[in-house]
UniProtKB/TrEMBL annotation:
Residues 51-75 are annotated as: Disordered. Residues 66-75 have a biased composition (Low complexity). InterPro entries: Snapin/Pallidin/Snn1 (IPR028119). This is Biogenesis of lysosome-related organelles complex 1 subunit 6. Residues 51-61 have a biased composition (Polar residues). GO terms for cellular component: BLOC-1 complex; transport vesicle.
Length: 204
């Protein structure tokens, strides 16, 4: 069994450690603070149970002799102190055991969320570029269609002009051909008349 003075000094050392070095070393996050709150809640519940048991023990000891009452009170105090020490050690061990993995998991989760956000931003930028590229291509196609339509109308107009000119030229060619045929026929008739006159003169 521990002496009361030594036991109190151990409790004081653990309390000082929990108030300074432990929390400065761990630097708890929100999740760790929630775990600490839960541990303190459990400890307060245990203290309430111990206080209730102590009160019941004191009521039972009131009828006993003074030496027995003092011995029982001393034992009850030591039991309460041991239970408090055990709960503090349990809470400290729990925090020391689970704080590093939780901190590591929290860091990895932050890195994962950061990578996901970066991928989302990159994909959004690529989609925006593709959308802009498609819009630019569509605009170029519309401009090309407009340009080709204008060229087609111009070519069509030129073809109509050429057709009209060819029609006029064809008509003129027919007129010239008819005129030449008439001229040739007249020359042939004149030549035949001259030949017939020459033949008559020779016969006379």
């Amino acid at each position: 069994m521990l002496k009361s003075n030594n036991f109190n000094s151990i409790i004081d050392d653990l309390s000082a450690f929990n108030q300074t070095d432990c929390f400065e070393a761990l630097r708890p996050t929100t999740l760790e603070l929630e775990n600490t709150t839960a541990s303190l809640s459990v400890e307060s519940t245990l203290d309430a149970i111990r206080n209730k048991n102590s009160a019941e023990t004191n009521q039972n000891v009131e009828g006993l002799p003074s030496s027995s009452s003092a011995s029982m009170a001393n034992k009850s105090s030591l039991n309460n102190s041991e239970a408090s020490l055990a709960s503090m050690q349990l809470a400290t061990g729990f925090m020391q055991a689970f704080s590093p993995p939780l901190a590591k998991a929290r860091t990895q989760l932050k890195e994962l969320i950061g990578k996901q956000n970066k991928i989302y931003i990159d994909l959004s930028e690529e989609k925006f570029k593709l959308d802009n590229g498609e819009v630019a291509k569509l605009q170029d196609m519309m401009n090309d269609v407009k340009l080709y339509r204008e060229k087609l109308l111009k070519i069509k107009k030129q073809m109509q002009n050429i057709y009209q000119r060819s029609k006029v030229l064809k008509k003129r060619a027919l007129n010239i051909q008819s005129f030449k045929e008439k001229e040739l026929q007249r020359k042939l008739q004149k030549q035949q008349q001259e030949e017939s006159l020459i033949a008559k003169q020779q016969t006379q």
